[in-house]
Design a protein that fits this description.
This protein has 605 residues and is an alpha+beta fold. Helices cover 50% and strands 17% of the residues. Strands 1, 2, 3, 4, 9, 10, 11, 12 and 13 form a 9-stranded mixed beta sheet that branches. It has a 4-stranded mixed beta sheet with strand order 5-6-7-8. Strand 1 and strand 2 form a beta hairpin. The longest helix has 40 residues. The N terminus is likely disordered.
Length: 605
């Protein structure tokens, strides 16, 4: 598994936060149930009393205090300096999680106390509050970006409220609990020292992971984490500022095929050698949709040869691509003729090829074998090889990106797949060209959300009819597709009456904000996706009209990207920290837990 895969897989630990109402209702139910269970564990307590009195006590100790904590924490954090994105649902969910932690320790302490002479219930409550304090500190410090001291102060709210409620119930009311008498001073002392031990452990761990990130990337690890979570949960683009500071300017290529009908430009087929990443809407994550929507005509933005090294640092960089395309359209020379669509291959490499006058469009795939991004250097060598072999003036190369294998499937210089592609290029032959027609259609597929692997552009289709041979160019706004799904789509499309077809994905990383990171097309809703594709192909067939075509391969200068140096540094640094954390974190926190446990349960006054 590659370093990028290791990092991407971390997103499986991210969850979608439920609404505040869900968290509040859950806290009410679980707190009442916790009190009832603890009360029932007491000897000589009836079921009725455990439910009524025990449940009421549990609701007051855990439910009311945690709901209050959630209501206080959100506006308090948002009033402090830092990134103000916390919503009430986030605050309530944190309170719910930590309340469940305290309640579990409390119930375990109550259970153990039924078999022992000494009551461990108040000590279990102190331990639960200490653990909740540590978890809250780690979450708030890592996500709110308000600093260590403020995070610690905010994190004390829930434990203080819970222990204060216990004091009130035991000493100032007649409500019965299973806690029994205790010394307020001793409880406070145990809680404070336990909290200090946990703070030292958290600070030590943060120190371990912060230093290499700040040294290599110039940004703190917790800041990076908070920026990522803000993007994941709210679509924030604050991370772009960090990437802009790290960015490297590059020169790259953009391929363009323009089709002009009787009413002007009918459609554009674009292949930018710029990677649509890194994730969500950050940088070029949603570039295929943003670029297509910025143009005044139907546009299909496919995936040109590029890897994560070529991720734009900001969505503003997409404007540079748009400007180059618009300039090229003003100078475009068109041909009324096109060749039939042909396929050539060598071993696993397959090329779909179509000539437009002196220009050439190449679709590259290894399907059904799995593969991922084709490196820009590899793509450039293929373009030059095709120009030398066919004498084509412009060669537009597309990485079909249609058979998912993950980062390990990247086609890099020196890989056997490179030579397979070059051998396939040697088999290209130009066939007779004739006048042709083109039709296009699109469907954003609003029925499907990004958890189905479909981005905002849905499906776009362009059908070319050359002397009766109908070829469908199908582009899904997705990040690759499940191995074998391409063949299912092609089989279904053949029934519409087309003779040839290829299905591609844009490699949009808009769909990669989901848990687990990778979200290839075809994991869900396969039948509906195929239905929408075939409908779009039929609509494109109905839209056929005579056109001319022109192609250009243009250079785009000074696009700020992560670059090979920083992209590699970012991935390797985070990957190494994850590996170290898996060793250091258990060591630090288990040791801290042992000290806290001994202090609370075995230290006598």
């Amino acid at each position: 598994m590659s370093a990028v895969d290791n990092i991407t897989n971390l997103s499986k630990y991210l969850v979608t936060i439920p609404p505040s109402k869900f968290s509040v209702l859950t806290m009410i139910f679980l707190s009442f149930a916790t009190g009832a269970i603890a009360g029932y564990l007491e000897p000589q307590v009836s079921l009725f009393d455990s439910i009524v009195y025990g449940g009421s006590a549990g609701f007051l100790i855990f439910g009311i205090t945690s709901i209050m904590d959630g209501a206080i924490t959100q506006p308090l954090i948002n009033s402090m300096e830092g990134r103000r994105y916390m919503k009430m649902k986030h605050s309530m969910f944190i309170s719910l999680i930590t309340m469940v932690l305290v309640a579990m320790v409390y119930v375990i302490g109550s259970l153990i106390s039924t078999f022992t002479v000494y009551s461990y219930i108040i000590d279990a409550l102190i331990l639960g509050c200490a653990l909740a304090f540590g978890l809250r500190t780690f979450i708030i410090w890592g996500t709110s970006n308000i600093g260590a001291v403020r995070s610690i102060l905010v994190s004390t709210i829930q434990p203080i409220l819970i222990l204060s409620m216990v004091v009130v119930l035991v000493f100032l009311t007649s409500i019965s609990t299973n806690i029994g008498p205790f010394s307020i001073i001793i409880v406070a002392l145990k809680g404070i020292v336990a909290g200090l031990i946990i703070i030292i452990a958290i600070y030590s761990f943060i120190l371990v992971i912060e230093s290499p990130i700040r040294r290599n990337l110039g940004v703190g690890g917790l800041e990076l984490l908070s920026l990522f979570i803000a993007q994941y949960s709210e679509g924030s683009k604050a991370m772009e500022k960090l990437f802009e500071d790290m960015g490297e300017p590059i020169d790259t290529l953009v391929g363009l095929v323009s089709f002009k009908g009787k009413n002007g430009i009918k459609g554009l087929f674009i292949s930018p050698c710029v990677h649509p990443g890194p994730v969500g809407t950050i940088g070029g994550g949603n570039m295929p949709t943003q670029l297509a929507n910025s143009l005044e005509t139907f546009a299909m933005v496919s995936h040109g040869p590029s890897t994560h090294d070529f991720n734009p640092v900001s969505s503003r960089e997409i404007c540079k691509i748009k400007k180059v395309i618009e300039n090229a359209l003003n100078e475009m020379e068109y041909s009324k003729k096109a060749s039939p669509f042909i396929r050539v291959g060598s071993e696993d490499a397959k090329l779909g090829v179509q000539y437009f006058g002196d220009d050439l469009l190449i679709l590259a795939t290894f399907a059904p074998m799995g593969f991922d991004d084709i490196d820009f250097g590899v793509g450039l060598s293929l373009i030059k090889a095709a120009q030398g072999h066919t004498k084509a003036e412009n060669v537009v190369l597309v990485d079909c990106h249609n058979s998912f294998k993950g980062e390990s499937g990247r086609v890099l210089p020196g890989n056997p797949e490179v030579f397979q592609l070059l051998d396939a290029i040697e088999k290209l032959e130009k066939t007779e060209e004739k006048e042709f027609k083109m039709g296009c259609a699109s469907d954003p597929i609003p029925e499907l959300e990004k958890n189905s692997g479909v981005g905002q552009s849905g499906v776009k289709v362009m059908v070319l009819d050359v002397n009766g041979q109908k070829t469908a160019y199908i582009l899904m706004d997705a990040n690759n597709m499940v191995i074998g799904f391409r063949d299912e789509i092609l089989d279904a499309v053949q029934k519409t009456g087309v003779d040839c077809a290829e299905v591609m994905t844009t490699d949009t990383h808009f769909v990669n904000t989901l848990s687990g990171g990778h979200n290839p097309l075809g994991t869900k809703e396969r039948d509906l996706i195929i239905e929408k594709i075939t409908e779009s192909v039929q609509n494109a067939l109905n839209d056929l009209e005579p056109v001319m075509a022109g192609a250009k391969m243009m250079k785009v200068s000074n696009i700020n990207t992560l670059g090979p140096t920083h992209a590699t540094e970012l991935v390797t640094t985070i990957s190494s920290i994850v590996a170290v954390s898996r060793i250091v974190a258990p060591l630090i926190f288990v040791l801290a837990l042992i000290f806290v446990f001994i202090w609370i349960f075995y230290w006598t006054f």
